[in-house]
Design goal:
This protein is mostly helical. The chain has eight helices and two strands; from the N terminus they run ααααααβαβα. The protein is globular and about 55 Å long.
């Protein structure tokens, strides 16, 4: 039993854990959020998958078991309270969004450090880079939602619902610079966020590709040197 426990903790210190994080994030962004949070079931599922994302991220950068439990409780509590499952409050919902945003930024930084750390560049590291790209989309989606909660209908044109799925859709369209034009930012702060996200959407893949090429060349040289 003790040996299984050690193997479990060792797994989360390996690069394979980045693949698990990617799967959870893909399900959250492309399945859970599009289902919407207008119903109680939708809200619960959103929270459950965020907690999965939270736990996976903490396992990546915190080694001490006790600190893992403490951080999960501290970070999950405001999100759970602010999810309006128990009561509805605009201020709590905004706090909920910002708590997730801060966590995703921190998680993205940790994943990038692991992705481009020393060592052979593997498929798991590439998946880690994709995780960061998706986290950028999630962060901006939550920021757009927060802007809407603060400014109301005047902040965006073309919204069908004031749901996270609408802002997640707009965020991904902006990040990939597709620009369908069905939803458009209508106030200064929303436009600034959209411009900033579009800029990141252009620069991140370019910088990422350059970084990947560099790491692959380094890995090739290392392999040749070991022969």
């Amino acid at each position: 039993m003790e040996r299984k426990g050690k193997n479990f903790w060792q797994f989360w210190s390996r690069e394979k854990s980045l693949s698990i994080l990617l799967v959870i994030l893909l399900v959250q962004i492309f399945i859970i959020i599009p289902l919407g949070q207008q119903t109680l079931f939708g809200k619960i599922i959103f929270i459950v998958f965020f907690i999965f994302l939270l736990i996976t991220g903490i396992f990546l950068f915190v080694k001490n078991r006790i600190w893992r439990v403490i951080l999960i409780i501290i970070l999950a509590s405001p999100v759970l309270v602010g999810s309006d499952i128990f009561f509805q409050s605009q201020s709590w919902e905004i706090s909920n969004n910002l708590a997730i945003v801060l966590y995703c930024i921190f998680l993205g930084a940790i994943v990038l450090l692991r992705t481009f750390s020393k060592g052979l560049f593997t498929l798991h590291r590439i998946q880690g880079a994709i995780v960061v790209y998706l986290l950028i989309g999630l962060v901006f989606g939550l920021l757009y939602h927060s802007v809407y909660l603060l400014q109301g209908d005047a902040s965006f044109k073309g919204l069908s619902l004031a749901d996270r799925k609408e802002f997640m859709y707009f965020s991904l369209v902006t990040l990939t610079t597709v620009g369908y034009g069905d939803i458009t930012p209508a106030i200064v702060i929303a436009r600034s966020l959209a411009n900033f996200e579009a800029l990141i959407g252009q620069l991140y893949p370019a910088i990422l590709i350059a970084g990947i090429v560099t790491k692959v060349l380094e890995s090739s040289k290392t392999n040749e040197g070991n022969r």
